[in-house]
Amino acid sequence: MTTLTPVLTKRWGKANSWRLAEYQADGGYQAARKALTMEPQAIVDLVKAAGLRGRGGAGFPAGTKWSFLPKPDGGPRYLVVNADESEPGTCKDMPMLMADPHMLLEGMIITSWAIGCHHAFIYLRGEVVHVYRRLLRAIEEARAAGILGDHVLGTDYQLEITAHAGGGAYICGEETALLDSLEGKRGQPRLKPPFPAAEGLYARPTVINNVETISQVPPIILGGADWFGSMGTEKSHGFGIFSLSGHVQRPGQYEAPFGVTMRELIDMAGGIREGHKLKFWMPGGASTSMFTEEQLDLNLDYDNVIQAGSMLGTRALQVFDDTVCVVRVVSRWMEFYAHESCGKCTPCREGTAWLRDTLCRIEAGGGTPADMDVLGDIPASIGGCFCPLGAGAPLALNSSLKYFRDEYEEHIRLGRCPFDRAATTAFNGEVA
Amino acid sequence: MPEVTAKTDLVTVTIDDVAVQVKPGTLIIRAAEQAGVYIPRFCDHPLLDPVGACRQCLVDVASPAGPEHKLRAFPKPQPACTMVVTDGMVVHTGATSEAARKAQTATMELILGSHPLDCPICDKGGECPLQNQAMMVGRDDSRFSGTKRHYPKPLPLTANILLDRERCVLCQRCTRFAAQIPADPFIGLQGRGAKEQIGRFDPAALGFELTAQQGTVQEDEVAWGERTVEGQPFASYFSGNIVQICPVGALTSADYRFRSRPFDLVSLPGVAEHDSSGSAIRVDLRRGRVLRRLAAHDDAVNQEWLSDKDRFAFGWQTAPDRLTAPLIRDGGELREASWPEAIAAAAAGLAQAAGVGVLPGGRLTLEDALAYSVFARRVLHTDDVDYRSRPHSAEETAFLASQVAGSGLGVTFEALTSGAPVVMAGFEPEDEGGIVFLRLREAVRKRGAKVFSIAPFASVGVQRLGGELIPALPGGEAAALTALTEASPAGAALKAADGRGVIVVGERLALVPGGLTAALAAAARLGAKLAWIPRRAGERAAIEAGLLPGLLPGGRRLGALSGPDAAALAPLFGTDLPAAPGRDASGIVQAVIDGQIGALVVGGVDPDDMPAPAEARIALDRAFVVSLDVRRGPVAQYADVVLPVAPPLEKAGTFINWEGRLRPFGQGIATTALADGRVLARLAQALGVSDLAELGKPGLTHDFFGALGAPAARVAAPAVPAAPAPVPPGHGQALLATWRLLLDAGSCQDQAPHLAATQKLPVALVSPGTAQANGLTKGGVEISTGRGAIVLPLRIAPDMLDGVVWAPANSGASRVLPALGACGGAVTLKPADTKEVG
Amino acid sequence: MSYDTGTRQSLERDAAQVVARYPKPRSAILPLLHLVQSVDGFVSPDGIEFVADTLGMTTSEVSAVATFYTQFKRQPNGTYNLGVCTTALCAIMGGDAIYERLREYLGIEDGQTTGDGMFTLERIECNAACDYAPVMMANWEFFDNQTPESAVALVDALRAGKPVAPTRGPDKLPTFKENERVLAGFPDGKADQGASAGESSVRGAELADEKGWAAPPYPAGGAAAPKGTKGEERK
Questions:
Q1: C93 occurs within a structural domain
Q2: A193, A229, B544, B583 - which has most CB atoms within 10 Å?
Q3: Which 10-49 residues of chain C touch chain B by CB within 8 A?
């Protein structure tokens, strides 16, 4: 049986956990002090050896990403932390930043030192004011304490961190869109190459990592590669925050080693809602293919989930029980993608809108048999899109057609949704 | 031995089974063009950065990979417009690959989903890339059952450019053009996703609520140059290009919209007449009437771009005041006359005059210029000839005669855009250069060229080039050029460029004593090229033809002809050339006033362009004037005989652009109008020279120049000491800086009202210090000399040198030369009420 | 440009601070747009011109950015922006019902503002609080585990001028303009208010505590003791 391994989430419940004094009392900034005595390359090597993979969804090895930076040329190099957490179902970075922002700052100091960065950025989605308050406060405290600034932790290393609040755009979670947004442009993905490692922020070498990825760096510095690798699976080392939401008894953040199964996690979360059973679940946000109870015993790591036909993404595990209409859920996700499509490329801009209109019409009872062709074909048309947003948009739809095609057809045949909307709510039927 | 395959720096790619060798770094879509394979596209444009937005160009790609270089196919079709070819790559387009075809059809279905079916009433119908490509890869039917996008139409982007948003496929060519090519991003993508649209900041179109205070523009807080005469933010001098590159019917120009169907048009190649670049154009006529002009493709000159002036200002050739018959003065009034009567009257007047001066103007073709040159020397026996109707100097005469005349293809656009540093003096690239500005942008953007401007402030155009200002007071340019040594950043950059750097001087440098001499010295000292870029289209041809005092064709010095030179000139010029150099334009005007010249032959000159407009008008009034003009221009009121001549559209001819490049063009439409040269041939006949019947014809002209060798004797280079840097005048005064804006009150633009509405609002500019010192806090300023005054709204230019005021030379209320009688020197400043300023 | 001199000067002062945070001025555009909203309650045309002026951009470039991001409003926003998450999970967990109830209760549609300028209602997309579904954001503060009744009660309390505390946030819900100023990067001194984390966020850590589960200890000889090993008191 897999057990939980709180490292990042360990301090979240403590009083004043976000304050510098409390963080330091718990041993905070020891990892950074140690790292600043290390050669930058040794840190990159250590993170590589630990096998830390990006926690933002793609799972790319962080140390390898860092090592793509060209040799220093005297010009600036940047670290940008992606805190634009917006993938539906993903809800780990925001509580992390609210409860323990110094853990991220410490990870940023270590990473910045490792890559030769003197001005790092946190790109936070704008719709979370209190999280931004805590971040600004943490930076202010760290600067006042000499942890940031001209003499980081008493050394000659200089580092500034700017926390930047976005303006509401899911696409800015895509790293090149994030960079354009941070440069003050519309957040639209860039053509690659050049990759950010070569020409990122202001066309300078740049590392972009997710909040959780960078926050895992301090424990790796303290615990070492073997310690980190002692958790997880062969190709997915370490631990991660698994976010359970939806129809489980106790939704929340469960920090576990890779390889944990959904059955174990649902058990830890108290099981499916009383009196109901699982219908389908999403392993990694809305931009992945859905699973059913068939995959409950799958060991959740990056590669296993891909083999099983989906993606682990951000470990955003959304659970839907038997009261839920799959057409309604999928149409809502398509509304999401159509709303969030940046509009740069034709397939995503036009395709998501077309699918949204079709799905909403089917859900509302106005579907026709011809719509099934559209649902079958347009996802492939979107496949020619520019960036991963479009590529991910039809995955839930495609997989839902695989498992629940008859439900769509039933909507069309009946001319209405056969499900009871009230039954799905958390307050279960209390709605008039 | 392994075979050496790296002998060539080309890579081989196979596209639809056709192998082509292309340069490394070539995009698949360009390589396909070389292979003769067309891949459908919307966002792609060869002169814009790849973007990969429309996804219409998806193709199947396989590349050699791994140690054995086995072909490995990409899992899904890739965009041909962003992917670079690699050696051994195999590409299949929709023509040979089912997967690529399917992908292209899928994209087309999505594009057409929200595109209206209004082709029958769309201006683009018949020349529409969307239409054509939909026929090529589209489905036969539509599965789209939703509601298409609807917008109120059209949305004016400028007074000149209209947008029908529902037709737009959001390929972003227009917005990328604006940002990349002229660097005036006046339009952008607005909104997001399917609600995205192209546009300006148009509060109503974008659903912004106006605040209560909105609409009360406080003049003093508006940045300079940013407003049009209609009060809108200024857009661009190059906006018409977006209409041309729009692959659908979304962008139209106000003057062409709904005027014609593409298949009713007859297209002719032409050369633009509004600046000295000689841009290649396509002239579209419907039943003999020009309906629009487009940029033609000429990599060496204007690529595929055109200034709005060259594109939209063509109506002057058919203006209501176009002359259709000769006029002669009869009892004080001009009346129509027959050609024989008018020619006889002109000949009689010229024959009787004590002396004749010739002012042919700066818009001539080489053919007409040569005719004027022959007419002056051979028929009128005078060297009092000067094409310059603008301020000039003897130093400039020597400079043009010694450096420009007969120099052939010198500094070229290619040299200007090599990426080497460019230092400009007396030259505003955007206002006075047009296409030169776009090419400089290319040099800056693509090849990192560094641009320097010797001027009293960095204009918007210089800023768009990322240019560095070398501050110089008006009149201080010669001193600044003298100070251009290796110790200065600009001088060091030129020197380091090792012969590739360019010093660009404009016609205004002639006004600064020693300026052109100093430019020559600086070029020699720093090993830089020197380019002289005038404004008017006819300047270079006039110089080649010898329309300057003391100068004969091909750079020959008057009075110093060798045997072969004399022989070459004799068939046209005869053997009895004037012995001594004549007067320049200012001298001619003065000689008329002094009674030494009794008659003038004038070609399309506006006295208000002359160095001293008032004196020019006196001279025109006193002399017997024969005017050759397209329209009943400002000289007509003084003329004794007016002879109508053909505009460029109605004659064949050859412009020579500033590079020295011949820009021949054919006659666009049938006409009875005669080119200037043909009129002069008749006049010559009437004046008793009977062997000049072919004068003004292209054949004769090109034969003549083709037979000219290098001149034996040239005019000496100018050697005028550099004027010392001026001292800023004291309180209440300032040094005047001025130039003509690209779009202004010029008579060749006056028949294009939509274009005129996009002009910049004329304003005066001073530094914060000058404003404060003279109590110019807000509102307007009066600029005056002993001759007169102009009143303009005032703007502050933060980087302007103190003690300088800038005003546009010929815009709205700002007619500098006629009003002030000067275009430089000290002027008086005082606050004025701007409310009364239009 | 039509800000009065005082407003214009204070905007310029604040803008200079914002611009100074970045290596290149244009990066300041999003915080500057938030700043404009903190003054005007929306991105006003004057604000667009102010930002263009400040950053040396055209107004078209500024509106291109402003209209890309959903937080930037083109109409004067209510004092309280009520965003109901109706992305799939929140929608089925009750977001749809909450939105419908508020729509009826306030008598306005998506994106509209009540006549008294008090409330703007909108459907919002996933706000990264799915373990608290259904979620509402008031002026971008978390209101977790909502019901139609709690949403109506929130409206009533705000109408009555009673202080309302977000589930995870400051002690009293700030106004739209006040929070926009925070998003422009100007702290309001409320960071230390509110809990460390909500109930759902700590469920895993609590379960681990309860069961005695933990990550393996750092190997001996590490630079420091593992974190969180002392002072285990939880709130």
A1: yes
A2: B544
A3: 40, 42-46, 48
